[in-house]
Amino acid sequence: MDRRKVIKGMAAGIAGLPFIQAKASQPRISDYTSYFQSDVSSDEKFWKKFRKDFYDVPKDFINLENGYFGVQPLPVQKAYLKNIEQVNVNSSRYLRTTYREDYQSIVNGLAAFAGIELEEALITRNATEALNIAIQGLDWKSGDEVILSGQDYYSMIETFEMLEKQKGIIIKKIKLPLLPKSDQEIIDRYREAVSTKTRCILCTHIIHLTGQIMPIKKISDQFKPQGIDVIVDAAHSFAQIDYQLKDLGADFVGVNLHKWFGNPLGAGLLYVNKNRIKDLKPLYGDSGSEENDIMKLGHFGTLSVPTVLTIPEAQSFNETITIQTKEKRLRYLQNYWTSKAREIQNVIVTTPSEAKRSCAIASFKVEGKETKKVIDQLFEKTKVFTVIRYLPDQEVVRVTPNLYNLTEELDLLIDGLKSIA
Ligand SMILES: Cc1ncc(COP(=O)(O)O)c(C=O)c1O
User: Which of 51, 141, 245, 320 sits a CA distance of 20 to 30 A from 402?
Assistant: First the structure.
């Protein structure tokens, strides 16, 4: 058979996915720097051009489900494709020679971006892995108690449920207020669950179900002096809202880089306060490292090297836009649709409206309507793609715009909601 035909056939056969090519002459984010020095959060004309220059958006639906992972901006995608090629061509010679240096410089840059020290940073494959290393690394004793909430991420809850079976720890699951009136109301829920046996609190910085932002610093300040470790799941807050990991006051934080940071899928970051590294036992086999060396926690085998190599490009995209600008625009988009949705009869927004308690993510339900029907009808009527999320006692529709979304798309969501509700 003709060799070219075989190759063509093979390419078409790879999951039948269209091959994505970066645009020919790619605008540079650095050309936009001056725009980000003023408040562009409500400037639709600006964001329209930004979207055209930096994103490939789907033509046949409107993606308002950017909570799963963040679409890579085109310069990041282009760098990723180049890195795949480079790693493949130079192969193990690269990994065995200069990669080590490149890796160190990438971790160094990422640590500075995250506001932590180099020796406190470990690149992982995702947030789940980062958090498992911290959670399973603590020296649990039978009878130790952990406090978590039904709104934490299911994989983290399951990690504790596994430790419950394996080590006899006790889980105290609290119910968090959906629309808290104050930080104290939240802190009180944890306080009521604390006992002399409490060893740890797991807390999600931005709750993936509703977008609620938790007062992590206050929780750390209240409970750490009592000898309680606070482990923070910051999967959604990293590069969505403007803060540094150390601002959380917790000793253990897990994040991923493929949601709001916009890196290719398959990278995360674990922060461990340098004074606490010695308190974590490696989850993966290690025998030779110093007890204070965070690398003792990193024996998970080969990472996706092209994914790691793309981190600086994603970081530079974030740094040029600035996280302040991202946070403002994302909150603007969320407020744009939630303020209208709150006016629609039978629509209940399940996300707090106070600026400090929410940003990009918000959720809602329609009274008297099955949630699955709501998302299906929304898609049929408007081509707006959303997702169901399951709170402990109810289902909601989660809506998550990203930087490339425009208010005209949110208008379609609202039109659809009006006709459904
Ligand atoms: C709150 C929260 N924590 C953790 C995770 C897991 O992230 P990863 O897929 O990077 O492990 C997610 C993913 O959606 C999440 O929403």
Answer: 245
Closest C-alpha among 225, 190, 203, 199 to residue 143: 199
* Average pLDDT of the segment spanning 270-294: 97
User: What are the chain's domains?
Assistant: 90-316 (3.40.640.10), 324-420 (3.90.1150.10)
Question: What's the distance, CA 261 to chain centroid?
Answer: 8
Query: Which of the listed residues 253, 259, 269 should we mutate to test ligand 1's pocket, taking the one with most ligand atoms within 8 A of CB?
Result: 259
Distance CA 249, CA 218 (A): 8
Contact at 8 Å (CB) between 113 and 121? Answer: no
State how far the Cα of 185 lies from the Cα of 245, in Å rounded to an integer.
24
Cβ atoms 145, 121 nearer than 8 A? no
How would DSSP label each residue in 152-221?
S-HHHHHHHHHHHHHH--EEEEE---SS-S-HHHHHHHHHHH--TTEEEEEEESB-TTT-PBP-HHHHHH
Query: For the chain, what is the radius of gyration of the CA atoms?
Result: 22
Closest protein CA for atom 16 of ligand 1:
208
Q: Is the dihedral of CA 43, 48, 50, 55 positive or negative?
A: positive
Contacts of 339 (CB under 8 A, 6+ apart): 353
Residues, the chain, total? 421
CA 67, CA 69: separation in Å to the nearest integer? 6
Q: Name residues contacting ligand 1 (CB within 6 A).
A: 126-128, 153, 204, 208, 233, 235-236, 256, 268
Q: For residues 140 and 163, what is the distance between their CA atoms, to the nearest angstrom? A: 8
Q: How far apart are CA 248 and CA 267, in angstroms?
A: 21
Task: Answer whether 342's CB lies under 8 Å from 354's CB.
Answer: no
209, 213, 219, 224: CA torsion to nearest 10: 80
pTM above 0.85, yes or no: yes
The whole-angstrom separation of Cα 284 and Cα 296 is 9
User: What would the pLDDT profile of 22-48 be if each residue is shown by its tens digit?
Assistant: 455 778 999 999 999 999 999 999 999
pLDDT tens sequence across 100-156:
999 999 999 999 999 999 999 999 999 999 999 999 999 999 999 999 999 999 999
**Which pLDDT tens digit goes with each residue over 184-206?**
999 999 999 999 999 999 999 99
Bridge partners of 252? 231, 272
In the β-sheet with 362-366, what is the strand arrangement from edge to edge? 347-349, 362-366, 395-399, 387-390
